[in-house]
């Protein structure tokens, strides 16, 4: 329930002054475009009633709540167990705090939740949304766009940039370039039978990393690529399948550190030495994973916290541009660089 | 920005019909208490303008957003690393989803964040709040109460139940009774020099567990009680201090599993066998901790997820009662039972 129930409202001031709410708003916020006598009448009403513009009134004028939604369209268990989200949220939170914006975290589970999240997003409680939806489902971004809620997506969306109707701001790392660096590093070590454990191929990051792998090794037989699911178990299963199909493979590029950790476990169980027999390289440089594996993991680093910060920055910039005189100016997606971090596994 | 900007508003209908917004609301939602001719005029205006009550209008009428804030007034790093929060949020989410309410998670860091969270809480975006503020600071609950935002606190608040001005709904487990069970279990094993690693004593749960310990062992010398901070490191430091002061202690009751895990590490390093030399019992039955320690931890179980569910239920019930004919009916705090879970450490 609104806190101002017992305080004089904007409506009360408007009624007392015999003007519209919009006029009261304009006067209270500087009086631009309101004739002198009218403005004086409004000021008198404000004084008489002891009206104090509250947050809701400020919102009416600035059309800003000072609140940004972060939507995680993934199961909650994943949100709490995958350090990726904690790092992104930390970066987002840092940037939003610096600009006195409240981070409003909306967790979703099933499709029913998603509908409810859509309702909240489009009901004027937040000024914009940062959406993480790793799979091919774009229902929330579409909903937000239709409702005019500015949105930035975490990671390249599944639809092509060239589709203007669905043009979307996003922040992603250079997945394809990073994957190329990983494979080149393995080639540089003299490896010649290099396998790839891909992420789920309904996620753009997985596709981009596979594309980067193929950029460098276009003639790789299908037997050397196995699809995982970004979990340690998925990485382990993929590693087992690869060893079954190509017993003499000498290197593996896993599309995530978490999958690489599962692969390392399988290699240890099978008595394959890393990196002597098989070199292993991951992707992400997830601190709590890459540094703790045995041996510590060589990987491709993406700055996850910084990407969160950039998402927030891009959204706030978009809100500014929309509020500015040239309301049609548009910001652009951001691709952050990756870099090779050499530890012991490759 | 509100999605309905281009759709006819409640205000437009009110203006067209020449009545107040409140009257339009009442007619649109059943017409109770509106005279026939007036109601007819409003219905005509609704038809003419093609007005469809939207979420915001529904909110005005029912005074419900269908959204509940969960506020965690702890550093974000703690929120993501302490499984306690994940379990509580899971329980809360389950209950809110079942009643089609959106969980709106507000993370706070420093005092500046807290002010901003207060602003969001009291600006009419949510119908109520579930607040976790483990320390003696009650600024957010007080703010929420003043703004008329129904609130349920996670854990007994620091102020006494008897302070009617600050009467607060909360859900907590029977910390004191659980602590008594822990100490009695150690006594039953024949232990006679039983130490206690307390939590930070600015938190009611810590105080209650210490009180339960003293209920059973009122003559315990101060040397057998050390204060920790609910971290493994704090538990380790407290264990070292206790061994220093009372080298022949034969049992430890730690006020949390996490602190017990730190204590176990110290005992192992010092060559003290658990439970042979020193029996150890924890509190919480935090699945990811108690089952993984070496040896597995005997502990006092509290059903953390269920407590989250009950918090949500209590808040929704409170909202119902307030909306009902007897708006003054009040719900009561809930204390959930604990139980001893015997594993290997005591």
Automatic annotation (TrEMBL), chains A, B:
HTH lacI-type domain segment(s): 8-62
Keywords from the named record: DNA-binding, Transcription, Transcription regulation
InterPro entries cross-referenced by the UniProt entry: HTH_LacI, LacI/GalR-like_sensor, Lambda_DNA-bd_dom_sf, Peripla_BP_I
SUPFAM superfamilies assigned: lambda repressor-like DNA-binding domains (SSF47413), Periplasmic binding protein-like I (SSF53822)
Protein name: LacI family transcriptional regulator
């Amino acid at each position: 329930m609104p806190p101002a129930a017992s305080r004089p409202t904007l409506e009360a001031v408007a009624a007392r002054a015999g003007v519209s709410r919009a006029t009261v708003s304009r006067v209270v916020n500087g009086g631009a475009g309101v004739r002198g006598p009218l403005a004086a009448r409004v000021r008198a009403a404000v004084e008489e009633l002891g009206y104090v513009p509250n947050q809701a009134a400020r919102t009416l004028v600035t059309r800003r709540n000072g609140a940004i939604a972060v939507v995680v369209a993934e199961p909650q268990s994943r949100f709490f167990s995958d350090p990726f989200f904690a790092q992104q949220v930390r970066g987002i939170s840092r940037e939003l705090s610096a600009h006195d914006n409240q981070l409003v975290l909306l967790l979703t589970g099933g499709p029913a939740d998603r509908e409810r999240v859509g309702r909240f997003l489009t009901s004027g409680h937040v000024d914009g949304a940062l959406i993480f939806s790793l799979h091919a489902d774009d229902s929330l971004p579409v909903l937000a766009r239709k409702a005019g809620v500015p949105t930035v997506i975490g990671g390249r969306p599944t639809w092509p940039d060239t589709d203007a109707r669905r043009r979307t701001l996003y922040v992603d790392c250079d997945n394809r370039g990073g994957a190329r660096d990983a494979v080149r590093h393995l080639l540089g070590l003299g490896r010649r039978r290099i396998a790839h454990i891909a992420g789920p191929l309904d996620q753009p990051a997985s596709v981009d990393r596979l594309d980067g792998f193929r950029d460098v090794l276009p003639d790789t037989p299908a037997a050397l690529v196995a699809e995982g699911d970004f979990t340690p178990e998925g990485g382990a299963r993929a590693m087992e399948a690869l060893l079954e199909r190509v017993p003499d493979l000498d290197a593996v590029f896993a599309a995530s550190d978490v999958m690489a950790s599962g692969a390392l476990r399988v290699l240890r169980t099978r008595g394959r030495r890393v990196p002597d027999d098989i070199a292993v390289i991951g992707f992400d440089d997830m601190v709590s994973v890459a540094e703790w594996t045995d041996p510590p993991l060589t990987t491709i680093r993406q700055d996850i916290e910084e990407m969160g910060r950039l998402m927030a920055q891009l959204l706030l910039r978009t809100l500014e541009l929309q509020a500015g005189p040239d309301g049609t100016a548009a910001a652009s997606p951001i691709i952050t660089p990756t870099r090779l971090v050499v530890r012991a596994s490759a």
